[in-house]
Amino acid sequence: MKVLNEVTDFFNENIAPPHKIISARKKDQEWRVLVEVIEEKEYMKKYARDQMVGLYEVFLDENSEVTGFSRLSLRYRSDIEEQVEQ
C-alpha cells in the first residue's frame, strides 16, 4: 500500500524507524495513520531501562504525501497499551 510506504519512509528520514503501523484509515480525501516508534533506543539500553514507545498520528493527502503528524502518547514498552480515541 502506497500510504504505508510513504509513512515508513517519512519516519525513517525524520523521526525514527517505525516499530509498528497500527492503523490506517481514509476519510474523504485524507488518510489518518497511527504509528508506534521506539524512542531513544540506544539511550534506554545504555541505562538498562525499558524502551519508550511513542504513538504518532500522521495525516496524508490524496497524493499520499505527509501533511502533518503529532505524537499522541509516550509509554514504556512493558506498560499495557492504552486505547486511543479515534
What strand line-up does the widest sheet have?
1-2-3-4
Helix content: 10-25%
**Structural class assignment:** alpha+beta
Distance between the first and last residues' Cα: 22 Å
Number of DSSP helices? Answer: 2
Any idea what the radius of gyration is? 14 Å
Q: Which outline best applies?
A: elongated
Oligomer: single chain
What is the average per-residue confidence, as pLDDT, rounded to a whole number? Answer: 85
Percent of sequence in beta strands? over 45%
Q: Count all strands and give the number.
A: 4
Distinctive features:
86 residues, 2 helices, elongated, single chain, 4 strands, 47% strand, 4-stranded antiparallel sheet, alpha+beta, 22% helix
